[in-house]
Amino acid sequence: MYQPFREYLEQELFRRFDLQSQPIPPGLERQVSDRGKHQATIQSWCYQCPEFRKIRYTYIDGGEASQVFNSVIYPSPCYDLPLLGIDLLSFGKKKILVVLDFQPLFRDEAYQKKYIEPMRELHDNYPDLAQGLEMKFYDANQYFSKYLIFAKTDAETVENRLFPAFRDYLNLYWGLLDRAEPLTDPEEIRRIVKAQKDYDQYSADRDPASGLFSSYFGHEWAEKFLYEFLFADASPLAVSQSKR
Ligand SMILES: C=CC1=C(C)/C(=C/c2[nH]c(/C=C3N=C(/C=C4\NC(=O)C(C)=C4C=C)C(C)=C\3CCC(=O)O)c(CCC(=O)O)c2C)NC1=O
């Protein structure tokens, strides 16, 4: 269902950037689950280039039971650009949740003006995809912008509305990168390294997918996938481990 989104992202990346494949820890790149009623395959890709220190995306194909396309693009720490975050989910055809955002590293006004305000026009063009839903797992004020795409929707809207929105948001993101001036002050660069690391820790601790991974591929695999691939700069919390 979301394969055209993955293909489009991939084409854009290869066309615009000089990508280098990055290794994915053994066993995490591809996995097949027979645990559920339906077989599910999870596959991931990882690259880097001078502009982006980590580009990762994952596709879960569980037939009609589950289709997921998830991606995070981390700019090189000499750019204070937001992360590009994509989470497109479909469970059993009826439950379709789509999220797409430029995930801000900082919340000051200058940052908002520079990176978030430019999203406003797109956001306003897609009111059906920007439903202002409440978040249960995450804090909407942390690492999310006010102009994100966040909708509970249907397959037709995914095809006819989300796909053009996806192209528009991606184009805007590449444009922001084009206009961004690389930082040279080591202090400023360190601040970005830290902010991206904090994002990983926050996201790993709250990721609503960990139960899904565990149910398909087992707890051990799920922990490894979360802390060694998806959010590799996060460390497992003692508390959250004992909770699980
Ligand atoms: C392969 C990894 C991966 C998967 C499969 C995944 C799935 C995933 N994301 C979810 C919600 C969500 N996901 C996001 C957003 C994001 N999530 C992101 O990983 C990114 C990059 C964004 C940013 C666009 C939001 C905002 C929600 C709703 C959570 C809430 O209500 O708090 C949910 C809960 C759906 C529900 O029952 O309501 C799942 C299972 N998350 C993952 O990280």
Automatic annotation (TrEMBL):
Keyword field contains Oxidoreductase: yes
The protein's enzyme class: oxidoreductase
EC numbers: 1.3.7.2
Family note: Belongs to the HY2 family.
Phylogenetic classification of the source organism: Bacteria, Bacillati, Cyanobacteriota, Cyanophyceae, Coleofasciculales
Protein name (record): 15,16-dihydrobiliverdin:ferredoxin oxidoreductase
Gene Ontology MF terms in the entry: 15,16-dihydrobiliverdin:ferredoxin oxidoreductase activity; cobalt ion binding
Keyword field: Oxidoreductase
Keyword Ribosomal protein: no
BP-aspect Gene Ontology terms: phytochromobilin biosynthetic process
Source organism: Limnofasciculus baicalensis BBK-W-15
Classification via InterPro entries: Ferredoxin-dep_bilin_Rdtase (IPR009249)
